[in-house]
Amino acid sequence: MKALTWHGRRDVRVDTVADPTIEEPTDAIVRVTSSGICGSDLHLYEVLGPFLDEGDILGHEPMGVVEAVGRDVTDIAAGDRVVVPFNISCGHCFMCDRGLQSQCEVTQVHEHDTGAALLGYTKLYGQVPGGQAELLRVPQAHYGPIKVPEGPPDDRFVFLSDVLPTAWQAVEYADIPEGGSVAVLGLGPIGEMCCRVAQQRGAELVFGVDLVADRLERAAAHGVTTIDAGQHDDVPAAIRALTGGRGPDSVIDAVGMEAHGAPVGKLAHTLAGMLPDAVARPLIQHAGIDRLAALYTAIDTVRRGGTISLSGVYGGALDPMPLLQMFDKQITFRMGQANVRRWVDDIMPLLAGDDDPLGVESYATHHVALADAPAAYAAFQHKDDGTFKVLINP
Ligand SMILES: NC(=O)c1ccc[n+]([C@@H]2O[C@H](COP(=O)([O-])OP(=O)(O)OC[C@H]3O[C@@H](n4cnc5c(N)ncnc54)[C@H](O)[C@@H]3O)[C@@H](O)[C@H]2O)c1
Ligand SMILES: [Zn+2]
Ligand SMILES: [Zn+2]
């Protein structure tokens, strides 16, 4: 089959690789029909190379049609249309029972002390071949795959793999009071969906911050009060001015470790990208190489006693945090990879009708063939050509 594989920093290619097969009784094989490119894939493209091997298949936002199932997979069968969550979770361990599927104790990667294995996401998360491919082996398929009805286009359901549950959890964790306010930092696919979900769930005032003009416009078009971080020296002050001097009840950081606006982090990032893997790995895992611009903005922006919800991914362990300000402002923090299955039943009703309240059917800006995926990665990274959300149709 053909698959999108990693070859080095900013170097992904479409290769011919062996077809996946059923290896465990809990596996399924899915023929992929749509597969998203995510901001998390850009971290692999740019900085997390030391945790990848040449030829690793990327992608963690797939859906498609079941081709075959192992003997312990009884809830889905060949021919079913399914969305595959990006976390690989068993559905019956201590963590899964508590709705913490991204911490599944059956698939945790003990070698690196990390949570549940993820599709297509480095050695840190199990080095499981991903879904930007014609075929995908789905481990723990007795639990993971979400059956969806025939009829509507893939775009209606594909975001259940990551974007929708991630945004839903980010909003849940942001704990916005009834009729309250939230500022969303980063208006990429995750941040924009956070805005839509927050509006849908009753937030009165939704602010959105980014530096990319067409992303700001996109959010403004559905009632988000946008702030262009490129036009304001002091984003927290600008948002405070719009919230009676107090700051919003909640802030969602949907930017992550590659934030623009912190040159020291950029240097460390570049360095880590150049070093031999054995040297870079501990640097990324155990030292602070992130660009923390967005996180600092979140801490400064949120009102006293407010909540910060972190969905942007960070990597370093020793990044300096402004503990004095965090303590003094009495801020609550919640964060983590989305527990995909935890939120599916909450989200499904919003995908079931024809009214499409979250606008999922028109969410993707680009649909590309697998052969064109490498170019789409570059365009998504540079945010060229209005590239906002790309779906690969293998
Ligand atoms: N927690 C999870 O389960 C989960 C799931 C998916 C994605 N993510 C993470 O969410 C983040 C966003 O993903 P995405 O797909 O939307 O990616 P993206 O890269 O398209 O979006 C990031 C946006 O942040 C903007 N930005 C950069 N610096 C900024 C700053 N200082 N202030 C404000 N905005 C700034 C960029 O212009 C961009 O629009 C990534 O870190 C990704 O890894 C987390
Ligand atoms: Zn993703
Ligand atoms: Zn589990």
Description:
With 394 residues, the protein is an alpha/beta fold. The protein has 2 domains: 2-161 and 339-392, Medium-chain alcohol dehydrogenases, catalytic domain (Quinone Oxidoreductase, Chain A, domain 1, Alpha-Beta Complex); 164-335, Rossmann fold (3-Layer(aba) Sandwich). It contains 14 helices and 15 strands. Strands 3, 4, 5, 6, 7, 14 and 15 form a 7-stranded mixed sheet that branches. Helix 4 (163-174) crosses helix 12. The relative contact order is 0.16. The mean pLDDT is 93. Bound molecules: nicotinamide-adenine-dinucleotide and zinc ion (ZN) (2 copies). Residues 38, 40, 60-61, 86, 162 line the site of one zinc ion (ZN).
List the helices and strands and how they pair.
Layout: E1 2-8, E2 11-16, E3 28-37, H1 39-46, E4 62-69, E5 81-83, H2 94-97, E6 135-138, E7 146-147, H3 154-157, H4 163-174, E8 181-185, H5 189-200, E9 205-210, H6 213-220, E10 225-228, H7 235-241, E11 250-253, H8 263-274, H9 277-286, H10 293-301, E12 307-310, H11 323-328, E13 332-335, H12 340-347, H13 349-352, E14 366-368, H14 373-382, E15 390-392
Parallel strand pairs: 8-9, 8-11, 9-10, 11-12, 12-13, 14-15
Antiparallel strand pairs: 1-2, 3-4, 3-6, 3-15, 4-5, 5-7
The chain binds nicotinamide-adenine-dinucleotide (NAD) and zinc ion (2 copies).
